[in-house]
Write a structure and sequence with these properties.
The chain is α/β, with parallel strands linked by helices. It is built from seven helices and seven strands, in the order βαβαβααβαβαββα. The chain has a seven-stranded mixed β-sheet with strand order 3-2-1-4-5-6-7, covered by helices on one side.
Length: about 190
C-alpha cells in the first residue's frame, strides 16, 4: 500500500500539529512530509525539531505573490493538506490545484463566528459575549473564501453560564485533539 503524505500549515504554537503527529506516530501508512509556517518565530518550529518533522518558514512573497509554494506542494504530491492553526487565506491558485484536498479546523460551529479575523481567542470571546449555550469545532474543506468550504464534520460542547472564554477555549481544544486526527485518517482512507 502506498504511504499517504500529509502536509501541515501552522502559524502558532503547533499543539494541533503535535497532536496529529502523535496520532500517526506508529503508522507506516501515513507520513507528515513537512510543516509549513508563515512565522519565522512560530513555536511550531520548535515542536517540529523535537518531533523530527521537516519544517519550512515562508514569507508572503513565496506564498501569495509567486508560485513558489504552489510548485513545492505540487512536487510533493500530498494526499491531504491540513491547516492546523494557519491564519493566512490560501491563494486561489492553490485551492484550484488541490480541490477537496485542503482542510481546515475552525474553533466554532460554522457558519457562526467565522470569516476574516475570526480565529483563536477572538472566536471564544465572541461566543462568550453572545451567551451561546454551545460551541464546538468545524472541520471543513478550504475554498477561496474564509471558512466557507463544505463542512466535513462538526462536534459540539456545552457552555455553562459561568464558563469564561478561557474555559470555552479549553473545551474546544479537547474537541480538536479528539476529532481532527480521526477525520484526517478517515479522509486519507475514505472510511
Amino acid at each position: 500500500m502506498k504511504t499517504k503524505q500529509i502536509i501541515l500549515f501552522a502559524s502558532g504554537s503547533g499543539s494541533n500539529v503535535e497532536n496529529i503527529a502523535n496520532y500517526f506516530k506508529f503508522r507506516k501508512d501515513v507520513t507528515i512530509s513537512c510543516v509549513l509556517t508563515n512565522k519565522s518565530d512560530a513555536k511550531v518550529i520548535e515542536r517540529c525539531n523535537r518531533l523530527e518533522i521537516n519544517a519550512l518558514y515562508f514569507n508572503r512573497q513565496a506564498f501569495s505573490k509567486s508560485d513558489f509554494i504552489l510548485k513545492m506542494l505540487q512536487s510533493l504530491k500530498p494526499d491531504l493538506i491540513v491547516l492546523a492553526g494557519f491564519l493566512w487565506k490560501i491563494p486561489e491558485a492553490i485551492t484550484i490545484a488541490f480541490p477537496n484536498k485542503i482542510i481546515n479546523i475552525h474553533p466554532a460551529l460554522l457558519p457562526k463566528y467565522g470569516g476574516k479575523g475570526m480565529y483563536g481567542m477572538k472566536v471564544h470571546d465572541a461566543v462568550k459575549e453572545h451567551n451561546e449555550s454551545e460551541t464546538g469545532i468545524t472541520i471543513h474543506y478550504v475554498n477561496a473564501h474564509y471558512d466557507e468550504g463544505a463542512i466535513i464534520q462538526q462536534e459540539k460542547t456545552s457552555i455553562g453560564a459561568k464558563d469564561s472564554a478561557e474555559d470555552i477555549a479549553s473545551k474546544v481544544h479537547q474537541l480538536e485533539y479528539e476529532y481532527f486526527p480521526k477525520v484526517i485518517d478517515d479522509l486519507l482512507f475514505k472510511k
